[in-house]
Write a structure and sequence with these properties.
Layout: E1 3-6, E2 12-14, E3 24-30, E4 48-57, E5 62-65, E6 73-74, E7 81-83, E8 96-101, E9 108-119, H1 124-127, E10 130-134, E11 140-144, E12 154-163, E13 166-176, H2 180-187
Parallel strand pairs: 1-11
Antiparallel strand pairs: 2-13, 3-8, 3-10, 4-5, 4-9, 6-7, 7-8, 9-12, 10-11, 12-13
Length: about 200
């Protein structure tokens, strides 16, 4: 299957044509788990990356789909986005997956796909993370989490935007020094945040 890699030279691509109905698109996050250090002064460099999505629907409703707070979403009712699990180690072959129902793209205004470090010291540069969008037709779209900022807790990866009935994806790869509240502030969703846990 063809794959398009979004980078600084090719930052965006259209996922759907105007009026086109697709099925459920899978969004996969995979990363490399670093090996534990050995010796007397060993330190655990393992990180737990979590895949998540902030959304704004056509009716103005907003929210987040994430493992934190058990906000796994729903595929067939608003928000039409579903997170299928939580890979704590990076060792799962399938990584973490969001599913987005593109049966009617006009239900969406925008969806921000992002990842954050739930546990472990920020270490994006060794994680070698990548996100692959797998629509039901057309090429897969890959976004690599490069240009790492190891002081950042979060990374805004890609923005899906409904542009006149076409769903377009824009590469972001924007590292943010803070958690969900700070990602929201950077992109202006305007949600109210409270502490959550898994």
């Amino acid at each position: 299957m063809n794959k398009v890699t979004l980078d600084k030279n090719t930052p965006s691509v259209s996922l759907t044509k105007r009026g086109e109905s697709q099925g459920t698109m899978r969004v996969n996050l995979n990363w490399t788990q670093s090996a534990p250090s050995r010796g007397f002064f060993k330190r655990n460099t393992a990180i737990d990356l979590d895949l998540a999505a902030m959304y704004e629907l056509a009716d103005g409703s907003k929210g987040v789909v994430q493992a934190l707070g058990n906000s796994f979403g729903d595929l067939n009712r608003p928000p039409f986005i579903f997170l299928d699990g939580d890979d704590r180690s990076g060792g799962s072959e399938g990584g973490e997956n969001l599913h987005i129902n593109l049966g009617d793209v006009n239900r969406f205004r925008r969806v921000l796909i992002f990842a954050y470090i739930y546990e472990g010291a920020p270490n994006w540069s060794t994680a070698n993370g990548s996100v692959t969008l797998m629509p039901t037709s057309g090429p897969q779209v890959e976004v690599r989490l490069d240009s790492a900022d190891d002081k950042a807790l979060s990374c805004a990866i890609a923005m899906l935007t409904n542009v006149n009935g076409e769903m377009q994806v824009q590469r972001e790869v924007r590292y943010i020094h803070g958690a969900q509240r700070d990602v929201d502030a950077a992109y202006g969703f305007g949600m109210k945040w409270t502490a959550g846990k898994k």
